[in-house]
Design brief:
Shape: globular
Number of strands: 8
Number of helices: 3
Helix content: 10-25%
Length: about 210
């Protein structure tokens, strides 16, 4: 009987040690540079919340039916930051995409970037468009395996700042992926990513579904 109790206590101690070890080993450790990066993204998100809440041009202040609450995000994950050159298409075609209100929009399929995640390569199109005031902009929009579940059903966007240096290496940071305004208010219409813009990967980074 005594031996059985001793064995039970040994087993119990080993079990507790195992649980403690698993608990601490599950938390991912980052190097100082990554910790600094994570903090910068968290600060950016805080500033965006303040802007969305207080800026008169924010959808929450333009639409009385849109009620502000803090935006939702995945935890900042440095594994979803990639580097790529911009590969321009030899033939840059104007393509028709649709807005969420059903309207047709013409935009130029300008080029693409490549990312490598877990030894698999993925392609993202870069589009060039112009705003109503004539300002030219470049953008990436995409859907992925989280779309319609953890993230907004239409898709998410990434801003893209074109560099004139053709050898420039861009940072593609999915922690900065955001929802278009139509995610917050029915007053807005936003571009719907095409089937070609789907990334066959669960991108658990950036902004989550607002509702």
């Amino acid at each position: 009987m005594l031996r059985a109790r001793t064995l039970f206590r040994i087993f119990e101690s080993l079990l507790i040690i195992s649980i403690i070890f698993n608990f601490f080993s599950c938390g991912k450790k980052y190097i100082p540079e990554q910790e600094k990066y994570i903090k910068s993204i968290e600060e950016f998100r805080h500033e965006k919340n303040e802007e969305m809440k207080n800026d008169p041009s924010s959808p929450f202040n333009q639409d009385k039916n849109a009620h502000f609450k803090p935006l939702k995000y995945f935890d900042v994950n440095p594994d979803f930051v990639f580097k790529s050159k911009l590969y321009k298409y030899d033939k840059q075609d104007s393509v028709i995409i649709f807005g969420t209100k059903g309207e047709k929009r013409k935009i130029l399929r300008f080029g693409y970037v490549l990312i490598n995640f877990k030894n698999k390569q993925y392609k993202l199109n870069v589009y060039r468009g112009s705003s109503p005031n004539g300002a030219v902009y470049y953008t990436i929009w995409f859907t992925d395996k989280t779309t319609g579940d953890e993230t907004y059903g239409v898709g998410r966007y990434l801003d893209f700042d074109l560099n004139p240096d053709t050898s420039y290496v861009y940072t593609i940071d999915f922690n900065l992926a955001y929802n278009p305004y139509c995610a917050y208010s029915a007053k807005y219409s936003c571009a719907i990513p095409s089937k070609e813009d789907h990334v066959d990967l669960a991108i658990k980074a950036g902004e989550k579904n607002f509702h």
